[in-house]
Specification:
Layout lengths: L1 H10 L4 H48 L4 H32 L8 E4 H11 L1 H7 L2 E6 L4 E4 L1 H17 L6 E9 L2 E8 L21 H6 L6 H11 L3 E7 L3 E9 L16
Parallel strand pairs: 2-4
Antiparallel strand pairs: 1-3, 4-5, 5-7, 6-7
Helix pairs in contact: 1-2, 2-3, 3-8, 4-6, 6-8
The protein binds adenosine-5'-diphosphate (ADP).
Subcellular location: Cell membrane
Enzyme class: transferase
EC number: 2.7.13.3
């Protein structure tokens, strides 16, 4: 469709170069509009299940009004479904914010130590109840330009997955490393791992490697998609190493900046 538009524009006196830019802009806008349509369709589909469950359980409570034990049991399930729905909704909102063209608003110089502390603290209770030990290590005093909340959520999602897909009494490592002009944050587990055929797809929204297995963990299939978009919005990338039965390591790499005290961004790859 680019050709005819070019010809029309030339006839109306607009330079071909400008027209090319315009055509590219229209294509980009169409692509975004399509992404938005897909997102709304996927999301409505994913919301139907928990909304349906909440409705059914509420009805069940109404009809079991004479039986306090049943009411209590339905109410417990209702509360669990409502929590799931709440988590799903807040993840959908995070992802839709990250996918929109809005700029990140809270940009500042962010200490990676602060990001790690916040992400680790948020998941400390989950780790404890799963019997998993979080082990934090590596370089300190590294900085990036970014939004601390978005970055903490991204690292937190990796930690949450590492805990959820690990056996009890295992360790989850959260390591930081300064490499040339960049900071690497690695979250590694010795859990079930991800088959090679799924390793690309796990970053897609609502994709879950093994549906039956993942369902038990109560996830949403949005965690890694949020990680990918959050990192990309910071000019970084996320990589995955995994072997089924051995474990997984997700590594976020972000452009580093100088520390507020003037210490320059890391230059040499450290071991
Ligand atoms: P979920 O909410 O299902 O965890 P994610 O987007 O965070 O959604 O992850 C997508 C899928 O990738 C998960 O359903 C799971 O199958 C797989 N996965 C993610 N992290 C890990 C991990 N650390 N170990 C094993 N599998 C993982």
């Amino acid at each position: 469709p680019a050709e005819p538009r070019l010809i029309v524009a030339r006839a109306s006196g607009i330079t071909p170069r400008l027209t090319l830019v315009l055509v590219r802009d229209i294509t980009e806008r169409e692509r975004l509009a399509e992404m938005r349509r897909d997102f709304v369709a996927n999301t409505s589909h994913e919301l139907k299940t928990p909304v349906g469950a909440v409705t059914l359980l509420a009805e069940a409570i109404e009809s079991a009004a004479d039986d306090p034990d049943q009411v209590r049991s339905f109410a417990t399930r209702l509360s669990a479904e409502a929590t799931r729905l709440g988590n799903l909704t807040s993840r959908i909102m995070s992802l839709s914010r990250l996918q929109s063209s809005d700029e990140l608003t809270e940009l500042r110089d962010v200490a990676i130590d602060e990001v790690i502390t916040s992400a680790v603290e948020t998941h400390a209770i989950a780790a404890e109840s799963a019997g998993v030990t979080l082990v934090r290590g590596g370089d300190r005093g590294l900085y990036v330009r970014g939004d601390v909340q978005v970055l903490s959520e991204a690292v937190g999602n990796l930690i949450a997955n590492a805990i959820a897909y690990s056996p009890p009494a295992s360790q989850v490592g959260v390591g930081v490393r300064g490499v040339t002009d960049a900071v690497e944050i690695a979250v590694s587990d010795r859990g079930i791992g991800i088959p090679e055929s799924d390793q690309q797809r796990v970053f897609e929204r609502f994709y879950r490697a093994d549906y039956a297995r993942s369902r038990r963990t109560g996830g949403t299939g949005l965690g890694l998609s949020i990680v990918k978009h959050a990192v990309q919005r910071h000019g970084g990338e996320v990589q995955l190493w995994s072997r089924p039965g051995r474990g997984s390591t997700f590594t976020i790499r972000l452009p580093a900046i100088a520390a507020p005290d003037g210490t320059p961004a890391p230059k040499k790859t450290k071991k």
